[in-house]
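step 4 of 6: structure.
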Amino acid sequence: MSSRDTRRVPRTRRGRVQWVRRGVQIFFVVLIATIAINHSLEEAGRSLPVLSSASLHAVCPFGGVVSIYQLATSGTYVNRIHESSFILMIIVAAMAIAVGPAFCGWVGPLGSIQEWVGRIGRRLFRKRYNKWVPRKLDRVLRYLRYLVLVWVVFMTARTTMLVFANIDPYYALFNFWTGEVAVAGLVVLGVVLLLSLFVERPFCKYLCPYGAFLGLSNLFRIFSIRRNADSCTSCLACDRSCPMNIKVSTASVVRDHQCITCMRCTSEQFCPVESTVELSSHRLVGSNRVPRGGEGQS
Ligand code: SF4
Ligand code: SF4
């Protein structure tokens, strides 16, 4: 392929990755809902044996993050957190070092549900969807989630309680029928779902402490979203496709802390030119790939 070759991506290849991603998202939403319902049934003695001992806290990797301090200082877990949370935290962290916060883009059930609600918003508002927040305000708000992360880790270490559970929309979503969810959690969930009609993944963008934690991996991940400037036609389709409003069209490598590795911007999905945006560990130039180093960043 020459340096300006603009071969179109075959239609049959388009969207395959996104169909797989959608399948993974549905699988985890169903799995988490099943675990939560089964945990409620357990109290009535009617749970499925294979899932009977699992609770939502046992399958939450963020529980491992907020337990680090207590585990290091006293060798115990925060109240209601299990060893399994810690193991899941390590698995997700290893995945983030390799491919970034794919957990957010592929697995996290609240992210998936925000995305699905957002599809309604996209139909309602078309080009205006996901562009309501003024750029300057949006840029500042995106650092809010780091404040939330610091507050959650600090308060959990201080109280040894899961302080975030009271306002966690994920916990509220999969426990609203139990009577264990604080009113604040239900309100946050309602606001997040409503805002999802206007802004794609508002909780992920502005408030999620686990997204903030995993987002740091974008600064050093091994496989990144990379753009081949030689074959790019500057059509901006990648920018329009990005749920996190990242300007892929001007980057050689996406290092934005908000990338969730959803792969929507890639040549397998929105970018119309073959091999121009890819998940890769190497810089893309022409038809050749050269070792990393010295690339422009976003
Ligand atoms: S840059 Fe690409 S992979 Fe990252 S969030 Fe945006 S569309 Fe998804
Ligand atoms: S989608 Fe983005 S990377 Fe692909 S040709 Fe258009 S501007 Fe370039």
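step 5 of 6: annotate
 - DSSP finds twelve helices and four strands in the chain.
 - The longest helix spans residues 16-43.
step 6 of 6: archive
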